[in-house]
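Technical note accompanying the year-one report. For the benefit of new consortium partners, we illustrate the data format agreed upon in the data management plan: each record pairs a sequence with a structure-token string. No post-processing was applied to the example shown here.
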Amino acid sequence: MTRRASVCGTWRGPLAFLLLFYPAFIRAAELSLPERTGAPGSSLTAPLTFTAQGAAITGLQFDIQYDSSVMNVTFTAGEGLRAAGKNLYSVQPGYNQRRILIVGSNQKPLPDGVLLNTFINLYSNAKPGTYAFTVSNALATNSAGDGLPLSVTAGNIIVEGAHDQAVRLSPDGVMNAASMTAGPLAPGEVITLIGSELGPVYPVQAAADHLDTELNGARVLLNGVAAGLLYAGPNQINAVVPPEATEAEMVSLEVQAEGATRAQAAVPAASASPALFTADATGAGQAVVFNQDSSLNSALNPAQRGSEIILLLNGAGSGQSAVSVMIAGQAAGMLDLAPSPGIVPSLMLVRCRVPDQIPANPTAALIVTVGTFASPSGVTLAIQ
């Protein structure tokens, strides 16, 4: 016993020294990107995964670097980011670089899991080879703003195979335009397609007063029915699901460019696929909410308890199912459900009342249910 106590005493000083002056001695939280392989013209998906290793990290900033002459990169919010109720911001400081900031007005630590879903769209003229796909300049902070150790691992993007082997659009790239998550297609839902070289080189938007089924040569067919198009660009198309296209259990989706088939995918159909639009257009964090005075809701402009608010809902379907709203786990009083003004009346305005006894919260969880279908988690509003 005496000898064991002596050994512990011998190591107590050096161990304290290591913990104090060498924080890397402690296993750091980690960001990781996997390696992916695809033919020229393919659209690949790669999850950016976060592992906390026990650290209470509430904010992250990092750069993703890639060869922009070979690929285009797009991000959507992953389940880990949604679970934390954070906001996602992205800028492009250079041609080969995207800077990501993940922050929130809450103090909730980021959980282990997928922070971002990354879409890597390879150009059809990409030459075979191995291309770096790296994470750099990574910073992590806790709720006090202190820096915490953060390690990164990243793979490569390997281009191999022939152009005619390309998969330009995967089912994961067919998403609800509000939540930016893949799921079943509902009548009248606005969807976003992300893939490789789907549409025209020069982006074009719909007219202000009507929808066309063709934009600069791009068309989207769902079970053979042409969808109205809101936007068409090289790697993204926004369309409105024709109600008659969802009468079958599965929807065969086809993207055409200049009369030729560019991509195909099969997606299930449902009577509703609800999702709320968010302020940063990522589908997570602060929702697009209008307070009773018609101002936009935010942490600096919260809604009063007992006041009326209006939500912007996508994927409500035919409008025949009951709609309910939950705020921080409490039922909101439903007041009205009306079509949104503009060229997409299938987007719905949900008017409800904030519960009187709800606690003040800058990031109160917000979920809308249509029939048996609930909107994705991770969407919030501010309550005072």
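Partners are asked to follow this layout when depositing records. Residues 1-25 have pLDDT under 50 and may be disordered.
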